Amino acid sequence: MAKSKNHTAHNQSYKAHKNGIKKPKRHRQTSTKGMDPKFLRNLRYSRKNNKKSGSGVFLKVEPNGVMYDGKDPILLLKYYYDIMF
């Protein structure tokens, strides 16, 4: 019996480019499966202590009790006024 052909790349690049070679879709959150457990534990504590406000902006709490979320300009003026005086 004759030897059979092992491999050929004929027509494969044509087929791949027919609909275009696309970049893989990036997911919003990468999987933590298989990551270092010590790192994940620390990440959990870190996220727990860096809570976001409802608007998605980190709240700044100052010693004088003023909270500023980075949006309201009047609150920003009060914030800086309280710091300066």
Order of helices and strands: HHEEH
Terminal-residue CA separation: 96 Å
Secondary structure: number of strands: 2
The largest sheet has its strands arranged as: 1-2
- Unreliable spans: none
Helix content percent band: 25-40%
Shape: elongated
Tally of individual helices: 3
Q: In percent, how much strand structure appears in the residues?
A: under 5%
Largest sheet: 2 strands, antiparallel
Global structural class: mainly alpha
Mean pLDDT, as a whole number? 79
Radius of gyration: 28 Å
InterPro entries: Ribosomal_eL29
Region (Disordered): 1-56
Keywords: Ribonucleoprotein, Ribosomal protein
Family: Belongs to the eukaryotic ribosomal protein eL29 family.
Question: What does this entry look like structurally?
Answer:
- With 85 residues, this protein is mainly alpha-helical.
- A two-stranded antiparallel ribbon has the order 1-2.
- It has a domain of 33 residues.
- The mean pLDDT is 79.
- The longest helix has 13 residues.
- Helices cover 38% and strands 5% of the residues.
